[in-house]
Amino acid sequence: MTPQNRHSAGMRDKPTQINPAHWPLTDLAAALPATTPFVGPEAIERQTGIPFAARLGANEQRFGPSPLAARAMAQAAGQAWMYGDPENHDLKAALAAKHGTASAHIVLGEGVDGLLGLIVRLCVVAGDSVVTSRGTYPTFNYHVTGFGGALHLAPYAGDASDPQALVDLAQRMGAKLVYIANPDNPMGSYHSADTIRAMLDALPLQTLLILDEAYIEFAPTGTAPEIVPDDPRLIRFRSFSKAYGLAGIRLGYGICTPDLARAFDRVRNHFGLGRIVQAGGLAALSDNAHLAQVLAGSGAARARIAQIAGECGLRALPSATNFTCVDLGRDGEYTRQVLANLAQSGIFVRMPSAAPQDRCLRISHGTAADLDLLAAALPRAL
Amino acid sequence: MTPQNRHSAGMRDKPTQINPAHWPLTDLAAALPATTPFVGPEAIERQTGIPFAARLGANEQRFGPSPLAARAMAQAAGQAWMYGDPENHDLKAALAAKHGTASAHIVLGEGVDGLLGLIVRLCVVAGDSVVTSRGTYPTFNYHVTGFGGALHLAPYAGDASDPQALVDLAQRMGAKLVYIANPDNPMGSYHSADTIRAMLDALPLQTLLILDEAYIEFAPTGTAPEIVPDDPRLIRFRSFSKAYGLAGIRLGYGICTPDLARAFDRVRNHFGLGRIVQAGGLAALSDNAHLAQVLAGSGAARARIAQIAGECGLRALPSATNFTCVDLGRDGEYTRQVLANLAQSGIFVRMPSAAPQDRCLRISHGTAADLDLLAAALPRAL
Does ipTM exceed 0.85? Predict the structure, then answer.
């Protein structure tokens, strides 16, 4: 029997309904679109043949990880023959201490991206309604689609997510999950803790709030609601990829009820966080001095981007994150052209996907050298 | 509205069927058992209060990663502010070159564990039949259960998996997936490439073979069937955790048809492999001299374990892996007691879960120093 004749009809006694084009996939998997959440800068470089001199598109934290974290990871590299602790005991304990709660409230995973996949898997069956903002974080949508959920999109209000619209849509659709990033990606706007609390109180009974706080360290004091770890109405996600400068190790965590945390333990990749990741995360958490330097550097970059925009007659939107949107004042097609021009000059930036926010460039808060390159390239690119 | 009253009956106009104990989980997620595939050695250390002096239970590769890989990872640590390339372009290309195929045939993931989760997700809906050997790799079973699949277990024949029994059971149950590890974990036995090819040819039409070759580098030449990357009847998995000594970075890969590889791209965590992981994997692949040393060290350990067993009047089973089973000749309860005694002496080993294989201790091929500790502790533990 060869692979070629194996899927021919009538070869076996037992009749089958196998579609050779899709075998062995489930109907859901066979129907999934081929889109990916993001094309990486390396893929763009391979396409254009032009290496990026300034990497300002992925909201990476350009000032780098804590030297303590870099050293801890380098030391762990020689010990990489050992699996990491599957319970992530020490890292969980450190995060619990940071947030004044118990380890039972902490879930760890391969980035917030990985955790978003798990929470969707835990809560959504095919056809369940899920609500998010049109144009916000595409990886959440990717996972909802991946598990067969029905996405319902609330428009932004101005350049911010619209909590009332999200609540209304969740009510109308009987949503299982509502996603909000606060501060917002891709716009950099934010809502106060009071607004998030009011949103939580207004949510329909059957809805779990996913509060993505990947950028929270960059936001003004008062943006994050107080942590109430026994509140079953929400799960909050935090990242080591942004303020902690560890995008390259993929480490994120959630804060939720112990019941929900235990559910993650029934589906997660138990040895998914390696030893180097655990060492890096633990060391990063201990270095508040470095974190303060990062926040200062990000603030300086925010001011510099506003200045560069102003010199081009453009407006930088306010930002509570480590990136700033610059309003080009035209449409998405124009923005895409400017973005392509910048790529030709070795500058990697991104743009929001949905109108009218796609009139903006989204520029990560880079180093002074990065922004010098941007300042030189932007006038030509416009 | 408080979290407490939110799930009380009659609080809302819209009636719901929410069970507060399980909310917000799907029925499947709510019904999942709390078992985890493995308790890690760190958890055992926390329970007993005795640190392990010899870590011989997780089939880690005790001789360590290539120094080139350790250096590459240490260098990448300072660059960990950058996400890894989500397409894993360079690592895929290196693996494709190693196997004489194209990158389109390679899928990468967070260990074989992560990839097993994805292949089950892609192929299994609730109630689908899946076949594996009773007592073999529990993480596969964990994922099948996690997606609602119905597990059917074929017994071992002697101390090896039984390809004919697996095929027969797959035929009888109309299995979607059949799993076989070759060489086998936990027994260390193996089948020839001819046997695996015959198994593939005998499989029912609707069945995909998952061929887990995590230990293949330790097996005799002729154990791995020739790579036929366009064969749609199977997916093979390989690991960096064993021969390459990189369990602590979680990196595994699959070889399959481009169609199936594209399906992984629709569900995987696109940025799931970090920059340090990619650097380590790439460097490890380049160091064949180190790999040869590892295989020699593993062979010496195999002989030493047989000697230690013999001195205790016990028999070591043949091994095509980096671990050896030692037959204690009694039942699982006795083995468990010996294992606990060894833990008290600071020796971490494991044992097969199913009878009659649970008459054995499973001992990883450690360093000479590790095995000196074992030689001293085993007579007392018996």
Answer: yes
